[in-house]
Write a structure and sequence with these properties.
CATH architecture of the largest domain: 3 Solenoid
Strand content: 25-35%
Structural class: alpha/beta
Radius of gyration: 23 Å
Low-confidence stretches: none
Shape: flat
Largest sheet: 10 strands, mixed
CATH class of the largest domain: Mainly Beta
Number of domains: 3
Number of strands: 33
Mean pLDDT: 88
Distance between the termini: 76 Å
């Protein structure tokens, strides 16, 4: 649509060329032509990178700090505008009344499943009972889907992939903005999930679609049962993750990581290649070097916990000071 039409829908002020054409939403970290990105924080602004987009949605306060001529939509309530913006570019939902109801051959388990429009699968695939594949899903060769697997719209599955029973691929992520009345507004997720080759996913795992860009599971990844991977997460090649682990949004997990059971990784964490995280650890800061990490803390009032955590990181220095004083 034209930026002028989008401005009316979002109820924003428009600065710039009213004839600018917008065909989607992009991230300020990875902008694309003919797309609009939204800027929540001036610290994320990079004029050389962001100029690859066609327009920016932001607030007047942030706009005044930007020094390039561009096409802008200026809003008084950025959270509301972002939610409405995403709604304009959501792919259509799968209409099961119009979807194919197929039965595979004997060699592929005689399985009933729903198959959305424009979806495809390659040779050697086997699907369990009650599989749901929504619109525009691309499935490679030799893919095995267990009973009750749901693959939501626009997802891509590579070759030689096994997905256990009860998995949900491409579900809506937990992306919410606090609105003026203190209620929560959900951001419609317009990204997707890409699962590459030779991946194995255990039963009852949930992998959320990206908010804008895709959630990506790279080649050779092995996931145990009951793992949650949130929106925009990237899991590096040949990483193995044990059961009941939760990885929050926008984390970048390196190659060949080994993550134990019941690990919790908070949002926007990056781990190096060849990292080992022991079971039940909580990871709340970037792991910049390969090695083995353990992070276990008892339950405290949050303010007390922050003070204690700071002291723990300095224990070796405190110990050396005490030892030096004893020698003196």
């Amino acid at each position: 649509m034209l930026i002028s039409e989008l401005s009316k829908i979002l109820k924003t002020d428009l600065i710039g060329d009213r004839e600018t054409k917008i065909s989607g939403v992009c991230s300020p970290d990875n902008p694309s032509p003919n797309c609009i990105c939204y800027l929540l924080d001036i610290k994320k602004f990079n004029s050389e990178i962001i100029s690859n987009a066609s327009a920016i949605l932001t607030t007047e306060e942030i706009f005044k700090k930007i020094d390039i001529q561009f096409c802008y939509l200026i809003t008084k309530n950025l959270n509301d505008s972002v939610i409405t913006l995403h709604e304009q570019f959501l792919p259509p939902h799968c209409n099961f009344s119009n979807s194919s109801h197929l039965t595979l051959t004997k060699e592929n388990l005689y399985s009933d499943f729903y198959f959305g429009d424009n979806s495809t699968y390659g040779s050697g695939c086997s699907f369990g009972v009650n599989v749901v594949i929504e619109n525009n899903v691309k499935i490679g060769e030799n893919v095995s889907l267990g009973h009750g697997v749901v693959i939501h719209k626009n997802c891509t599955i590579g070759n030689n992939v096994k997905i256990g029973s009860g998995c949900v691929i491409g579900s809506e992520g937990f992306g919410n903005f606090r609105l003026d009345d203190f209620s929560w507004g959900h951001i419609p997720h317009i990204g997707s999930v890409v699962i590459k080759n030779n991946v194995a996913i255990g039963s009852n795992c949930t992998i959320d679609r990206g908010t804008i860009e895709d959630t990506i599971i790279h080649d050779g990844v092995k996931l145990d049962n009951q793992i949650h991977i949130a929106h925009n997460v990237h899991i590096g090649e040949n990483t193995a993750i044990a059961a009941n682990t939760g990885i929050a949004g926008s984390c970048k997990i390196g190659k060949r990581n080994m993550i134990g059971g019941m690990v919790g990784i908070v949002d926007h964490i990056t781990t190096a290649d060849d990292v080992i995280i022991t079971a039940t650890s909580t990871i709340y800061k970037n792991l910049k070097k390969s090695g083995t990490y353990t992070g276990i803390m008892p339950f405290f009032n949050h303010a007390s916990w922050k003070r204690i955590a700071l002291l723990i990181t300095k224990l070796d220095k405190i110990f050396n000071i005490i030892r030096l004083k004893k020698k003196l």
